[in-house]
Amino acid sequence: YTAMRVGVERKFDTHPELASKLIATGDAILIEGNSWHDNTWGNCHCPQCSRVGGRNLLGMLLMEVRKELQYT
């Protein structure tokens, strides 16, 4: 999680246009949807995973970073 957080923070620090897009999502809930069974960083929407709730760690991380960006 720490390594991913550093990478995400770096991405938005070095790409202000992406930071603006992230901030523009306001207070929307961000979900990293996928179909490759990643229920740790995201939430897989394939039929096999339909009953498994993903942890969506990337979505939560993006929302945390967005909140920090909104107040800087």
Structural commentary:
By secondary structure, this protein is mainly α. It has helices at residues 2-14, 16-23, 57-70, and strands spanning 33-34, 43-44. The chain has a two-stranded parallel ribbon with strand order 1-2. The two termini are 23 Å apart. The model has no long low-confidence stretch (mean pLDDT 96).
Return the structural class. mainly alpha
Low-confidence stretches: none
Strand neighbour order, sheet with most strands: 1-2
Helix content: 40-55%
Note the main attributes of this structure.
72 residues; mainly alpha; 2 strands; 6% strand; elongated
Concise synopsis of the structure shown:
This protein is mainly alpha-helical. It has helices spanning 2-14, 16-23, 57-70, and strands at residues 33-34, 43-44.
Write the SSE topology.
Blueprint: H1 2-14, H2 16-23, E1 33-34, E2 43-44, H3 57-70
Parallel strand pairs: 1-2
Helix pairs in contact: 1-2, 1-3
